Amino acid sequence: MQLPDDIHFYQLRYELQEVARWGSYLSTEEVERRGLMKAESRKQSFLLGRAALRSLLGELTGAAPAAIELKVLDDGRVVAPKTPYHVSIAHSGDRAVAIASRRRVGVDIEQIVEKPEALLRFVLHKDEIEHVNSLPVPNNKRLFLCWTLKEAVLKAIGTGLLRSPKTVKLEISYDLGRANVKEDEGFLWEVRFEQQEDYMLAVAVEPAE
Ligand SMILES: CC(C)(COP(=O)(O)OP(=O)(O)OC[C@H]1O[C@@H](n2cnc3c(N)ncnc32)[C@H](O)[C@@H]1OP(=O)(O)O)[C@@H](O)C(=O)NCCC(=O)NCCS
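Output (structure tokens, whole complex):
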């Protein structure tokens, strides 16, 4: 994905032979947390997300991935308190992505699967429907496009889905792979998006000063 120079991006795909190495990056707390997870798929996505973020911050700071301090805030967000970076993680299927920037950022990735397009009514404000319907997007991708764009923004804001996706409104330039997403309060987020095979990926950043 083409991103501005100050937005740093890292992507991993699950590979069995890498599990031991990625596992060695985890802190004691993360190993404990992962141990309490019941579903194997959740264990895998947690490992992949942490490995992606630790690898990225390792590259940016020169530290070993395992030496990087990560904390989880009460709202679920991951932060890297000893670095100057805002960070965000997302995982879906066998992939995970991590981003870091001095600007506020959020990322989302979703595997595109069959889902009724009617679910869009839980995502879109009525004022957005005409715009979204006018986009040259194949029908089965419309839901995933809108969803990932909005979730990336809600993660950058830090609420996640505790805040309704209807409170952030889309203005999508589909052919450019870009969108402006406006909060009800007026703040504008810039989002880049891309389809990678059967995954939709979106990165939201606050505008540069
Ligand atoms: C955050 C949320 C949008 C994630 O959606 P998802 O599609 O299930 O998962 P994604 O792969 O896109 O993102 C997961 C990552 O988002 C991050 N995250 C969690 N809460 C977040 C928040 N409030 N803001 C930004 N990022 C958040 C975490 O790093 C998480 O990965 P991890 O648990 O492996 O560390 C969704 O779970 C949500 O909104 N939850 C409500 C907030 C909440 O309950 N937070 C947990 C409180 S303990």
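The helical segments are 19-25, 28-36, 40-61, 129-133, 139-157.
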